[in-house]
């Protein structure tokens, strides 16, 4: 009887998640779906990872330090979020799997750890470096994106998805890694490209990102005509 009482008194395992992005700038299309996801799957913490951008891809308009500052402004006063700048410290291209493995090594093998991606990233996941190792390190939480296909490109990839997919979010905290959860998050058609375009045209961005970030963008003179 005492053993049963002890079991029932055990705290629920916490589920932590990571969310990477260029964040040039961070906006409501990043924040609001993740906040909805946190409610859905009972996330205890979301770590934002501003990306280091490899040389073969277009460089962000804002510097690494400016992008980091905008992320800090976006999450100020929100206990759900933390920021981790490890990718910005690298001078060489970094891969998601490398970052995830380093975080897993730091936090131990038992923590339920998830990586948040969008439906667009899920569709191209098979092109990522060592993509088949991702579920050895974490769960995948997939946010809905407007205008993207629901199924993966090939029967083999779709079968891989279905083998790992869970529909009950409570399962995510019951083991450290290995599951894919397709979340029912808001479909927000907001992009950093659109924000930068509006800035250049002198249009309001009030519906796209927080005022604190808009003020920072203004003070730093970001996203203006060259």
Automatic annotation (TrEMBL):
Transcription regulation listed as a keyword: no
Cytidyltransferase-like domain sequence ranges: 18-198
Pathway linked to the protein: Cofactor biosynthesis; NAD(+) biosynthesis; deamido-NAD(+) from nicotinate D-ribonucleotide: step 1/1
Database matches in InterPro entries: Cyt_trans-like, NadD/NMNAT, Rossmann-like_a/b/a_fold
Enzyme Commission number(s) from the entry: 2.7.7.18
Enzyme's top EC category: transferase
Record bears the keyword Transmembrane: no
Organism superkingdom: Bacteria
Reaction catalysed by this enzyme: nicotinate beta-D-ribonucleotide + ATP + H(+) = deamido-NAD(+) + diphosphate
Stored Gene3D superfamilies: HUPs
Keyword terms of this UniProt record: ATP-binding, NAD, Nucleotide-binding, Nucleotidyltransferase, Pyridine nucleotide biosynthesis, Transferase
MF (Gene Ontology): nucleotidyltransferase activity
Family matches, as HAMAP family: NaMN_adenylyltr
Chain's role: Catalyzes the reversible adenylation of nicotinate mononucleotide (NaMN) to nicotinic acid adenine dinucleotide (NaAD).
Family: Belongs to the NadD family.
NCBIfam families: cyt_tran_rel, nicotinate (nicotinamide) nucleotide adenylyltransferase, PRK00071.1-1, PRK00071.1-3
Protein name as annotated: Probable nicotinate-nucleotide adenylyltransferase
Gene coding for it: nadD
